[in-house]
Every structure is written in structure tokens, then in C-alpha cells.
Amino acid sequence: MTLVEIAGSGLAELTCARLLADRGHRVRLAPPRPASHPAGAAGAGAGARPLLLTGPTLELVGRLWGDGLLEGGWPLTHRHARWGSGPSPARFPQPGRAVDGAVLAARMRERLGAGDLSGEPPAWTVTATPGERAAHERTGRRRLLAGTAPVRSPRDQDTARLDCTGLGWVHLTPLGGDTCLVQAMVPGPAGDPAGLLARLLAESALGPRLRRPPRSAVALAAAPRVHLAPAAAPVAGRGGLLVVGAGALRQDPISGTGTAQALRTGILAAAVIDAAAAGTSARALCAHYANRLRTAFHDHLRTCLRLYPAAFGSGAWQDEIDAMRRALRGGAAGTLPGRSDRAVPSPHRSHHPDDLPPRRTRQ
After folding, report:
1. Which of 221, 237, 270 is the last residue before a domain boundary?
2. Residues 332 and 243 in one domain
3. pTM of the predicted structure, to 2 decimals
4. Distance separating alpha carbons of residues 148 and 180, to the nearest angstrom
5. C-alpha to C-alpha distances, 58 to 65, 67, 127, 357, 363, nearest whole angstrom
6. Could you tell me if 308 and 199 lie in one domain?
């Protein structure tokens, strides 16, 4: 069967490897890379990657990987949200689990085993890190601020909380014990992430829930983006390439389904490779892959354009809103009809029973 190089240890890459191995393909795993500092890592321990997985994502992980992968995570039962200037926040059931993404990836690798150890060239490479020079379409300059802080009271640690200020939104995710992940979205670069996060907390209703703001924080590029060439078919003397995860498609973390969307890019990449091995045109499959990512990107922008204008009226946020509108106008000719935040589907569902149907998310 096909030999595939998995050139990283991200959740999307490892999920793609799992599906390919289950279908009889040979998978070669790259050595684990040193942990970086993605969203939420500051103050959470070296290499930690706090993630909030909500109901649909939990179901998807269970379908793909079975039981036990999320052991040790902190369970959540509800979400409490106030969007925009509305005076009445809403609390509603939203099952979830706060987990360490680094631990999750390590457990996935362990289940995959050693993989293929041959030295022959792969027919395909799957990666979530196509390089800094990769061509993406970006829609804005906003940043996600993230750090951890101690909660004032260990009670009520089953609820994730969202609030808005004039500058951006703020989100608290309990991590268990007396620790909370603090995240905020602002409309541009932040020279002092911890100071700006403290300001947002002071202006929101969430600040009093913490004993203090995070002492350190990171500011990460967070505007939606899509890779302009996420798939290349194999040609003579060169294997094919599929970009997955955030390297292929990055969305605002406003709906709690970012991890699920990343996993679905891995599902779709496995579907492309499997269908190509069965005789379908690799070039046509790669074109379909790129089209599905762009469709999901445009659907997500429409969701953002329903939410952000209703919450933020500053000039900086208007620039972000205008950037998303320009992206939709520029890509309208190639956009397929669909609903907001639609999951990236498999090109041939009959070959891939693990692919889940898309689910509507709730803010």
C-alpha cells in the first residue's frame, strides 16, 4: 500500500496517520519536535497546551481514537456567555473537557507505534507546518492573548465563561484545582500581552473571578486564514503533499470547535490518499481538497461577520470586519453554498466511515 510521511506530531497529522494505518497504508512518523508555546501555554507548565474540547469534538475524538485518550482532563458541563453589550449573560449546557494538547498528542503517538522504518521515498507527505513562507490568504491582524491565572474560588469550576469589552472578548476555561486558562481576542498586535490581558479582565465581568491576572501571556496571530495551495499531487520523482491542521485552515476560536476542524482536515487528507490509491485522479482529489478548505474558510468568515459587527464598533475592529468582507467578495465565485462553520467533509464518504457529519455550533 501507499507509504505516507507524517512530518509532524500535531493532532491533525496523527489523526491522518491513524486513519491511513487502519486502512492498510504504511505510515512513517517524524521524530517528536520540541514543544513550542501555542495558545494558553504561558504559565501552564513547560510544553503544556491547554485545549477546550466541546461536545462534538469529544465525540469525534472518541470515534477516531476510542476510549482513554482524554483521561486526566478536567470535565466541564456548562458555558456562560455575554456577547456584545447585552446586559443578560446566558448560561447553557455545553459538555466539554479541558485537556493538555501535548499529552493528547503523546498518547496518539504511542497508539500508532513505531510506524514504517524503511528508507524508501514516500508517495505523500502530510504536514501541519508548511513553513513561514507558505502562501496563505489572511483576513486581518487580530491576536489571541493567552495565559493562566488562579481562580478566586475553586467552586463553580464546571463552567467556561465568555464576556466582551469594547476592545475584545475574554474567555475563562477552568483547568482543574484553582487554575484557569485566560484567553482574549484583540484587533491587532499587542506589545505587552500580559498588561493588555489584565486591562481586558479589569473591564470585563470576569476579572473578579480571578485572584490576579496572568503574570505572563503570549500573543498569537489569530485572524482566519487558508492555505492557497494546500495540496499537490505526486509527479515523477516527487511525492504528493497535503497540508493539514492550522497550517491549512485557521479559524477564530469563538465556537469551541477549532480542534474538531483541525482533525477533520486530517480526515480529509487521509480520504484523498486512500482514494488516490484506489485509482481516483490525485490531481482532481487535490483540487477538491483545496476547494473544501476554501469553502469552510468562507463559511467561517460568514459566521464571524454575524458575530463581530454586533459586538465591536471601534475603528480597529472595523478594519478586521472589512478584511473579512473583502475576502468573501474576492472568493465568491469559487464558494460553494453551505451553512456556517460547516465541517470539512470527506470526498468519498463510502470509503471513509469514520468521517462524521457536520454539526451546527453554538456561540
Report:
1. 221
2. yes
3. 0.87
4. 6
5. 10, 11, 23, 14, 17
6. no
